[in-house]
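Handout, section 3.2

Students often ask what a structure token actually looks like in practice. Rather than define it abstractly, here is a full record for Lantibiotic protection ABC transporter permease subunit, MutG family. The first block is the sequence as you would receive it.
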Amino acid sequence: MNVWGCFRADLMKLKRTKLMWILAAIPVAYAALFLAYFTGRTESSSQMYLFYMESLGVALPFFIGLAAGFMIDQERQAGHFQVLLGGTTSRISGYMSKLLLLLLLQGLLIFFAVILWIGGMKWGMGLTDIPIWSYVCGWFWLTCSNFMLLMMHLFIAFVFGMGASILMGGAGLLMTALMATGLGDQVWMYVPWAWGVRFSGLTGMVLDGSLAPEMANYVQDKMAQGMGFAVSLTAVGLAVSIAWFRRWEGKTAHE
């Protein structure tokens, strides 16, 4: 079975599970919370973008930990990974399908959270100066720059279980929150938890047009530097994770 076949099978397994209900509820609750907070306030559209997208980026590691843990726990309960490791499906196809499914779930969560937020600002708050392109770019960065975290959480979920993956997600949430502050200004390029919030936030600042030309060039240089390191580390991480999974025998840390 190829990656597409494995992907469809994994998606079918998640239908009507608690994870899908959680996935549907989070964007609604998140957008409603921020709409209630900003109603009656006089914040600029750029400030609202930064606050919303950075807050969403901070919360993503916990969702990734929950989703990865839930998905792998299903495989463990279904036969202790025997179908995944010893079936007709190639190991690489099975691993990549789970990685891509996590990427899809994360992308959908961010997409609906952004769509509901924009709709609420436009028709609920009556705002007209909404930086749509900034939100599109922010969605892209939050979705793609967390690919390294998806691989890390899959490894933790396979070896240590669902609880460890969720615990790591909570720790990642705190790390992301720290990297979004001034503490991460000099090191964020080298910390995977910081990539989503930093890339989306800096993109919003550049597209807003409020930065001086010198500062805009400086920010773009930092983004290029961070992008180069992020792509390189993610490529190495993907190669290492595939090599590990091909040799993994299904043993967990508790065995």
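Discussion prompt for tutorial groups: The longest helix spans residues 45-79. How would you have guessed this from the sequence alone?
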